[in-house]
Amino acid sequence: MRGRNPIRKPVEGSGDVLEVKEVFPTLQGEGPLAGMPSVFIRLGGCNLACKFCDTAFEDFSPWSMSEIMSSVRKYARNDQGASVRKLVVLTGGEPFRQPIATLCDTLLEEGFTVQIETNGLLFRPLDARVQIVCSPKNIGKGYKPVRGDILERCLALKFLISASNKDYAYVPDVGQSLLSTPVYIQPMDEYDAEKNAANLALTQELCARHGYRLSLQLHKMLGIP
Ligand code: SF4
Q1: Any residues with Cβ below 6 Å from ligand 1, and which?
Q2: What whole-number distance in Å separates Cα of residue 50 and Cα of residue 44?
């Protein structure tokens, strides 16, 4: 959205209907579960409007739980009907903006692994089996510590790196040193070959210097959604 989306507030409700942009099969391209065949549920709206945001999430509509689950079940299977995508990723936008506990419970009951990608500013109590990957954002006044309820159950932190944007040219300690949370760093995609090459070089340098793990956007390399 490149920062052109409206900043949306959290919404409450039973979670029987959620604002969904799309459900689609892919592989997880980023972070600790990269490479896993997945079904993505892209939820609508975000509580931030980052200038570099590479995702469209505003064209959403209300989906009932049964509509979401029937799409997930369909895309979890291959053409022969075998269950091949056992990971469901809730992404956005910002998934914690919406009441997602019922959806997570339903997915877990059906045997899926559930991962949430969040910017770490919002939280809702969820089943302990839900895996959270947090990608903190620097919203102009420096990074803030990740809230404790997210940090204590965070599978990994993922930071974006940009050589030309001083807000993203470094990795802050937002709490990872307290709990030895794994840190992944990922070159920001600025849709500019020269900038992207500099971002990759800086990311590699920071990995080599500090021992961070490299995250690349596999789905973009493969040309899949
Ligand atoms: S937090 Fe993520 S989804 Fe939301 S605007 Fe920023 S980059 Fe986009």
Answers
A1: 46, 48-50, 53, 55, 92-94, 119, 137
A2: 15
The CATH T-level fold of domain 17-222 is TIM Barrel (3.20.20)
- Average pLDDT for 156-176: 97
Residue 43 Cα, ligand 1 centroid: separation in angstroms? 12
What is the atom index within ligand 1 of the atom nearest the CA of 3?
Answer: 5
CA of 134 to the centre of ligand 1 (A): 12
Instruction: Give the residue whose CA is nearest to atom 3 of ligand 1.
Output: 93
| Cβ-count burial 175-190 (b if 16+ within 10 Å, e if not) | bbeeeebbbbbbbbeb
Q: CA nearest 62: which of 10, 108, 16, 126?
A: 16
Indicate the domain borders of the chain. Answer: 17-222
Select from 5, 52, 55 the residue to mutate for testing ligand 1; criterion: most ligand atoms less than 8 Å from CB: 55
Sign of the CA dihedral running 182, 113, 104, 100 = positive
- The pLDDT tens digits of the residues spanning 179-196 come to 999 999 999 999 999 999
Amino acid at 77: R
pTM of the entire predicted model: 0.96
